[in-house]
Amino acid sequence: MRIAILSTFYPFRGGIAQYGTALYSALKEQGHTVKAFTFSRQYPDFLFPGTTQYVTESDGTEPLESEEILDSINPITYYQTAKSIEKFAPDLVITQYWMSFFGPSIGTVAKLLKHQCKVISILHNVIPHESRIIDSPFTSYFLKQHHGFITMSSAVDKDLRSFVPQAASLERPHPLYNHFGQKSDQKKSRQQLGLDENKKTLLFFGFIREYKGIDLLIKAFNQLDDDYQLVIAGEVYGDFTVYQKLIDQNKNKDRIHCFNQYISDQEVTIYFSAADVCVLPYKSATQSGVTAIALHFEIPIIATNVGGLKELVIPGKTGEIIQEADSVLIEEAIKDYFGKDTSNYPSNIKALKEDMSWDRFASKLIEFSETIQL
Predict the structure, then answer these.
(1) What percentage of the chain has pLDDT greater than the value 70?
(2) Where are the beta strands (DSSP E) in 142-294?
(3) Where is the Glycosyltransferase subfamily 4-like N-terminal domain (predicted)?
């Protein structure tokens, strides 16, 4: 099958680019002819909340050949992108959707192609965590241009049906990343990060945004004894000042270790290898790529009961679920986790991993696409 993927790819950085690259590789390995199409401009610089949109030399990211053609704010390129994809003559076009800002650009390309080939979208989010006035009209427009959808949680599928009740969709969990390498020695990893080798180590990993509840985790950590240490690793989207104030006021601040920076692929291993458990204190969520990374490294997860997180975090088997995004409940869940026998968790995670490979995901995607009739 000839497959075009329109998404963020190298030289752009971040989880969506990593996702697209992993899917591209899985489809290629199955013998499909695949071509990647990406942005010439993803965001105008003034709209981007992080330090840079682009891969840097220190990231160590492997280049992926793609056609850099779509400018998110230049409608002329919407038509140019559709023409270029049409020239490739795909049987299937796959897009990704994670933010309503891209509804007009990617949606218009899909609209121009949907009468010529099958067009499906992988939906990371339908309703954004941080709402804007453009969300509903842009999302509605985008969804109407596709024949089918892949959703990675029941929460996303429910949101999809609030816009398109009869949508053709396949629900599959976020596959586990395998490009970060293997777990390394915990003691050495802690030494590399300047951590105490013997303390119970909590990890908050990923872009720091308000909805992810890092403030709740910092408040919860204030109530833990000195057996614990907290690692916060990820680039801040916005202002870290409010979190820094909470840290400065925290009686356990000397055991809070902040790495407020973009974490390169090569560095990811160190943080997860150093951790005993990954904590996701999210106030809202659909699904999270961080769960896929944690499970890849066979690190249990403590997560709030929001969105689709509970679909992979199975209490007593792969982690623990906190019923509400509340600092007291987060504190209690952490204490409960370390107070019980968790020796079976790694074997449970290994069993879950078998069904969450990129090869399995790619196969299910192709099977789903074959059920769609133009």
Answers:
(1) 94
(2) 148-151, 169-171, 200-205, 228-233, 256-259, 277-280
(3) 14-163
Measure the CA–CA gap between 259 and 84, rounded to whole angstroms. 41
Q: Which of 290, 304, 291, 311 minimizes the C-alpha distance to 154? A: 311
How far is 212 from 282, CA to CA, in rounded Å? 4
At residue 85, the pLDDT reads 98
Question: Residue 305 has what DSSP assignment?
Answer: S
CATH of 2-175+357-369, one of 3.40.50.2000, 2.60.40.10, 1.20.1250.20, 3.30.70.920: 3.40.50.2000
Looking at the predicted structure, is the pLDDT value of residue 57 above 70? no
Query: Where do the structural domains in the chain lie, given as residue ranges?
Result: 2-175+357-369, 186-353
Q: Say whether pLDDT at 46 is over 70.
A: no
Q: Tell me whether domains 2-175+357-369 and 186-353 share a fold.
A: yes
**Residue 282's closest CA among 326, 331, 238, 230?**
326
DSSP summary character for residue 209: -
pLDDT at residue number 55 = 62
Ranges of beta strands (E only) in the chain are: 2-6, 33-41, 67-71, 92-97, 118-123, 148-151, 169-171, 200-205, 228-233, 256-259, 277-280, 301-304, 319-322
How crowded is residue 353: how many other Cβ atoms within 10 Å of its Cβ? Answer: 17
Q: 218 vs 202, 211, 213, 231, 328, CA distance in Å?
A: 11, 14, 9, 10, 11
Class of domain 186-353: alpha beta
Phi and psi at residue 51, in whole multiples of 5°? -80, -40
Q: Which two tokens stand for residue 75?
A: 């409608």
Q: Using CB atoms within 10 A of its CB, is residue 57 exposed (0-12), middle (13-18) or buried (19+)?
A: exposed
**pTM, whole model, 2 decimals?**
0.74
